[in-house]
Amino acid sequence: MKKNSLYYFYIIVLLYIIGAVFDGVAIYNHSKEYVKDKSGYVEILNFEDRILNVEEWMFTGSGWDSKKSTSTEKLKGSEVHYNAALTSSYYFIVSSAAFILMVLFVYWGGSHLFKVVGLSMITIALACLVIGIITPMLEIGAFSTNLTIPLKFTMPFIGELDIPDKVFEGRMYYYFQSKSVIDLIYVLLESRNYVVAVSIFGFSVLVPFIKLTLSVLLLLSRHFRNSGLVIKTVGRIGKWSMVDVFVVATFLSYLSFSNMNSGIDTEANTLVGLYFFLGYCILSIASSQIIDLAVREEHDTF
């Protein structure tokens, strides 16, 4: 009896959603704290503040010692928060896998198998999409390590003055950015790049949500499943979703920036948000296949 009733499925979904919300909030909060501490670390080592700092130019000054201590503390704090975000992400993955396995265990061999598996994938995909949108996905930075400035002067009647080079110990940052999709859209709106902002929001946020909503309606409503227009719309709307393209472009940006040879050191790190976006892409494709199977099975039955 339980294999042919969706009652148990709704209970399992509710429990999963509660757990996913807790994991998602934890991932978001720790990711934000990570960015806050990492940005604080970079701000302390910003090139303008270091080069224009009189204490750092003084060979006997304590400017660098103070910055080193404070920046190290900020960096350690950021690492703690990022590891916490990763831990919460692992909890999310485990709970999602358990969710799918539980659904398969309860409904294996039943008439609603493809329907509940499809709905399960859509639920997880929606969670991945939301987390991927609100959490940072990529950080890039440009810096110098132990920047050395020669201090050689030639004066009339005296000749060349041999002064020891000035070495700015540690890192000196020239550029750093760490943004989520929502942050990127907000920055574009602030800079009046409305067309780009609306395009990113529409193709990478709005269209995926519409596709997931229509997919749920297809699986839950026989009227929608019997509508050829709705089925074609769900199939075609995926072509207008640029999330997969966005993920590939982000990976390419990561690879190109991390391998830049511009005379300064560069860093490019992928963050948890990008992997949740990737998870959405995979689950969205998989759920589309499951929906096709569910629709065909119903048509064959009737």
Automatic annotation (TrEMBL):
| Pfam families hit by this protein | PqiA (PF04403)
List membrane-spanning regions: 7-28, 90-109, 116-138, 194-220, 241-260, 272-295
Q: Which InterPro entries match?
A: PqiA-like
Keywords of the record: Membrane, Transmembrane, Transmembrane helix
**Does the record's keyword annotation contain Transmembrane helix?**
yes
Transit peptide among keywords: no
- The domain of life for this entry's organism is Bacteria
Query: What protein does this entry describe?
Result: Paraquat-inducible protein A
Q: Which organism is it from?
A: Candidatus Scalindua japonica
